[in-house]
Amino acid sequence: MSEERILTLHPAGKKGVNILRSKYDFIKDFILHTIQERGRISFEELSDLAVEQLSDSFDGKVLWYVVTIKLDLEARGLIERIPKTSPHELRLKG
Fold it and tell me: Domain locations in the chain?
């Protein structure tokens, strides 16, 4: 039996990618939990934390998954880029 996959979304409507649901959920939970804890966080800081904390336990390129799933979460309306922040910062939406 093959593992469940999910097709990611992209906020600009570009074609998403098909990734394993288990990897998606793992990174998604990390991103949402980290943003919730901080209130707001720069994408750079989020990426650094993910690579630092997850590289040993995650099978795959952590940074690639963080970028892909962050865009998916934006497209799904769970997180948003804070306007006029540079480097761009993220927060939970709603």
Answer: 5-92
